Amino acid sequence: MTFRRLTLRLPAALPVLASAFALTLGAALAGCASPASRFYTLSPSGDGARTPAAAAATAGPTNPAWLIELAPVDVPPQVAKAQLVVQSDATQVKVLEQERWASMPGDEIRRALSGDLTQQLNTIDVYGSPHPDNVPVYRVSVNVQRFESWPGSHALIDAVWSVRALDTQTVMTCRSVLNEPVGDGYDALVVGHRRAVADLSQAISSGVRALAAAPQPGMPASTSSTSMKGGAKAAVRMKAPASIACPQIAPAAASAG
What we know:
Layout: H1 14-32, E1 38-40, H2 52-57, E2 67-70, E3 83-87, E4 93-101, H3 105-121, E5 137-150, E6 154-165, E7 171-181, H4 186-213, E8 221-227, E9 233-239
Parallel strand pairs: 1-4, 2-5
Antiparallel strand pairs: 3-4, 5-6, 6-7, 8-9
């Protein structure tokens, strides 16, 4: 029996067609790729442009007269996400997938406030860190009630904040509503929020100074009882924390972003 070898000859144009198909497929896949995301922060750093002397001047004091303890900042659940959330009208919002915060909004606000407060008060934020017992500490709490972004219109922060002296438990509780006009674009919107945070830090700084300068008021005492050995009751005098009125802050001049 005789076998013949068969040779399969491909058309000469087939490699060219395969290359063209690969290029077309690559272009199609590139067209389907998601647009690049942009990331925004409320704490722009200019350290790279500062001289060593300027950087050292803002690094914080070595022996401050008092310390602050800025707690994590609460924000409304609808904006507590990585994406920018903007208002389209009074009852509707848009979640922008390609416009994102560098960290969660509460963290962005806290970091910006901490930087502002430590510079304005010439102090150190010791939240989560050990600190000397002989230095007064003021605990700052911020609860953002509204964090609204209106593109091309304004950026709004409505926050309830408090300052408490840890040694005397004297407390100040205030509310600040900051409304900053902004121009077009998401960059301008973020800049508007940064200005609002800066205004908020000025109000809190004034509160800390007022609390530090105020004479310690006499605090009314309340009486409670506690058990002693043998079932006897002993009266215990407990002092209620005093409160101080919020400082009057002159509104900053608004400027369009």
